[in-house]
Amino acid sequence: MSDRQHHHRHLRSVEVITVTETTETPAEEPQHEAGRSTADIAALFDVAGREEEAIRQLDGCMARLHEVQHAKAALKTLSAPELRAALEFRRAALGGEPA
Q1: pLDDT in tens, 8-50
Q2: What does the H/E/C string look like for 48-77?
Q3: What is the pTM of this model?
Q4: Do 33 and 56 have their domain in common?
């Protein structure tokens, strides 16, 4: 195996903020620690303020995932005749031709 195959790749989320210089502004925005402008810091507050909404969305996604997993587990327990009948029922409900 080559050295490349031994490396694990990690994904990370980053936020990109583009800062441009203009000469038309009468007063320069103050720069704070780490070179962030007041607008950059305000943008960070906006992102941080979306945490609760992100958690609510994630909770909803997890609930749907659990529902899907339970349905798949229940389908695995069905007999062949039950599966055929259910597939025929679905096909008819979707307007398909009978098999």
Answers
A1: 555 556 666 666 665 555 566 666 667 889 999 999 999 999 9
A2: HCCHHHHHHHHHHHHHHHHHHHHHHHHHHC
A3: 0.50
A4: no
